[in-house]
From TrEMBL:
Natural source organism: Rhodocista pekingensis
SUPFAM superfamilies documented for this protein: Actin-like ATPase domain (SSF53067)
Name by which UniProt lists this protein: Hydantoinase/oxoprolinase family protein
The organism's place on the tree of life at top rank: Bacteria
Pfam families: Hydant_A_C, Hydant_A_N, Hydantoinase_A
Limits of the Hydantoinase/oxoprolinase N-terminal domain: 2-177
Length: 692
């Protein structure tokens, strides 16, 4: 057996894959249970028990968690100290000149995670090439650590100037701290990122140190609980870069888990697109608390190290310099609460009802209506199959809640619920525009792959708004992020800042740098038990025109980096720059970062084709329900059981396709076909398509 679990803000999802002795898939089952903060591992074990997982037969366990992002956003890390180069203690507070709200005279900078009295300095200095300008002086370190102890510090971040180029001084400070104070957690910036930019490196080291004890305790508890139940297989954690890592590696570098859960779905969407011949897709994950989306082109999601948390139109947020699949995330999910501001305007989110008390329909004491309640009241969700049939929804309470909200602007309950769905959709359309139109991509050139508990309910209307012609609702859509974790390899990213002009630097200099990174990758993967032939290495550079500030990532041609290969690399950069910014320059090109990606290949889940019996689609029809389709009107929708649909079947909207934890809403004018793997393919065609 192989199992993946994804801990979300509202639900914990589990996918169980059963195999025979030859590795052939004999069954895939899914479970969705309530998330159990702050002891998230309880929800994971509950999902295991619900799925009847036999621990002694479990060979592979992959885990995605929100523990890191939750600790950051909820400020539930530990008291952290920072040690930096003399004269640079205020880099963390000065920050980056990226204030988004220029005309806000009440603007306040984000409060640093480390207050000034816990930011200390040591005498030392390296130049930009990593050469020693001033030797390191550790004589004052014991007094600094005494002050930290007195202040209750539990973690120390070390970030010295230009340590990305030469980490010797930084490593010496970290080693001395470990010798003088073995109980404290130490994070050196060079162990987290080897890219330049002082503020971003300092912020990343601090945030990693801030969450490291909590993340370590969580992973230790999870491992211990699994082992107590008899688990003896391989355990991995989903990383933000789209790969998985061992528990030990995740514990050592917890900031790499900052987007651990959502990226699983993005990887699954990329794999699905390649499988069904749709390599260019926009992936949309609508969960209980948030909606996440990313653009996938050529079957590959974009990886970035320019990542910020808590960034809004009014605040720049906090930088994290770690490889992350480029995701846009907004506070709009099934549990997002509808509310009215002082001016009488209706809003949806970002506050969520979570799993406790949850939407009003749960009957657990929730009084504020949510997007889920709106979908229930408008007929999109079947009251008889609410929460998979586990909950009988409190419909009178739902109607009363929307009546109360609608009274502020003179609308009845159903009209208010319709407005909530419309606002939620508008918020999600804006997020989809951020990953497509705002980056020069026409959404009409992409298919929309929608998943999560709410993806299938909103996908068709979102696609219509952006003129996206095709929507894919994958199999196991409600737990698709967990499914994607079983489609992942172990991945590590090795990035080094090295400024090299490609027209003047010897080609061997760049090749030597990649050779050094490859040797480091080989050692790391060897420690994890991967033979060299199972590790795939690919090279990229972050390059720019001479005089520019920011870069474009470009793949490096395979083979020796001779003069001809460098010329090809320059041409590839011109083409990538033209795609990103619509123009290219006749100017020298310089490399800023060398980026080597190491992938340790493991056996991955492949979606098996579905069996075909030749039954008519009418055998999957379970009835008719009155549904409010908003701008498409109110219709009697044909209702189908997704589990009874098989490849080759087609149907036309208005319709609903129900499964255990979600429902696909098919408006009039859309047709649905079932592909060979059981995915629903929605096409926007006037008049739909005939049933067969």
């Amino acid at each position: 057996m192989r199992v993946a679990t994804d801990v979300g803000g509202t639900f914990t999802d589990l996918v169980l894959c059963r195999e025979d002795a030859h590795g052939a898939i004999t069954g895939v089952s899914t479970v969705k249970v309530d998330t159990t903060p702050p002891d998230f591992e309880r929800g994971v074990l509950e999902a295991m028990r619900t799925a009847d997982v036999a621990m002694d037969g479990l060979g592979l366990f992959v885990h995605g968690t929100t523990v890191v992002i939750n600790a950051l956003t909820e400020r539930k890390g530990v008291v952290t100290g920072l040690i930096t180069t003399e004269g640079f203690r205020d880099v963390l507070e000065i920050g980056r000149s990226n204030r988004p709200d220029l005309f806000n005279f009440a603007f306040r900078k984000p409060v640093p995670f480390v207050p000034r009295h816990l930011r200390r300095e040591v005498p030392e200095r390296l130049d930009v090439k990593g050469r020693v300008v001033r030797e390191l002086d550790l004589s004052g370190l014991p007094a600094i650590l005494d002050d930290f102890r007195a202040a209750g510090v539990e973690a120390v971040a070390v970030c010295l100037l230009h340590a990305y180029r030469n980490p010797a001084h930084e490593a010496a400070v970290a080693a001395e701290i470990a010798r003088l104070w073995p109980e404290v957690t130490v994070t050196a910036s060079h162990a987290v990122t080897r890219e330049w930019r002082e503020y971003e490196r300092t912020s990343t080291a601090v945030l990693s140190a801030y969450v490291k004890p909590a993340a370590g305790r969580y992973l230790d508890r999870l491992r211990q609980r699994l082992e107590d139940d008899g688990f003896r297989g391989r355990a991995y954690v989903m990383q933000s870069n789209g790969g998985i890592a061992t528990l030990a590696a995740a514990r050592a570098n917890p900031i790499a888990m900052v987007e651990s859960g959502p990226v699983g779905g993005m990887l699954a969407a990329a794999a699905l697109g390649r499988l069904i011949g749709e390599p260019d897709v926009i992936a949309l994950d609508i969960g209980g608390t948030t909606a996440k989306c990313t653009l996938i082109q050529g079957g590959e999601p974009r990886i970035t190290t320019d990542y910020w948390i808590e960034q809004t139109p009014r605040t720049p947020g906090y930088a994290i310099k770690t490889p992350v699949i480029d995701i846009v995330e907004i506070g709009n999910g099934g549990g997002s609460i509808a509310w009215v501001d002082a001016g009488g305007a209706l809003h949806v989110g970002p506050k969520s009802a979570g799993s406790s008390p949850g939407p009003v329909a749960y009957g657990r004491g929730g009084t504020e209506p949510t997007t889920t309640d709106a979908n229930l009241l408008t007929g999109r969700i079947n009251p008889g199959r609410f929460a998979g049939g586990a909950i009988v929804p409190d419909l009178p309470a739902v109607e009363a809640a929307f009546t109360r909200v609608g009274a502020a602007f003179g609308a009845d309950a159903v009209a208010t619920a319709r407005g909530v769905i419309r606002i939620a959709n508008a918020n999600m359309v804006n997020a989809l525009k951020l990953v497509s139109l705002n980056r020069g991509h026409d959404p009409r050139d992409f298919a929309l792959v929608a998943f999560g508990g709410g993806g299938a309910m909103h996908a068709a209307q979102l696609a219509a708004e952006l003129a996206i012609p095709r929507v894919v609702i994958p199999v196991h859509a409600a737990v698709f992020s967990a499914l994607g974790m079983l489609m992942s390899d172990l991945r590590r990213d090795y990035i080094r800042t090295r400024i090299l002009r490609l027209d003047t630097a010897p080609p061997a200099e760049l090749e030597t740098l990649f050779d050094e990174l490859a040797a480091e990758a080989g050692a790391d993967f060897g420690d994890d038990g991967f033979a060299p032939e199972t590790v795939l290495l690919t090279c990229h550079v972050d390059a720019r025109y001479l005089g520019q500030e920011h870069t474009v990532k470009v793949p490096v041609p395979a083979g020796p980096l001779d003069a001809a290969a460098i010329a090809d690399l320059v041409e590839a950069f011109h083409a990538a720059h033209r795609r990103a910014y619509t123009f290219a320059l006749d100017a020298p090109v310089e490399v800023v970062n060398a980026h080597l990606v190491g992938v340790g290949q493991i056996a991955k889940l492949a979606l098996p084709p579905r069996a075909v019996t030749g039954r008519a689609v009418e055998t999957a029809r379970t009835g008719t329900r009155r549904v409010d389709y908003d701008v498409d009107g109110i219709h009697d929708a044909a209702v189908y059981d997704r589990d009874a649909l098989e490849p080759g079947m087609t149907l036309a909207g208005p319709a609903l396709v129900e499964e255990g934890a979600t429902v696909a809403v098919v408006p009039p004018g859309w047709s649905v076909s079932v592909d060979a793997y059981g995915n629903l393919i929605l096409d926007r065609r006037a008049g739909g398509a005939p049933e067969r």
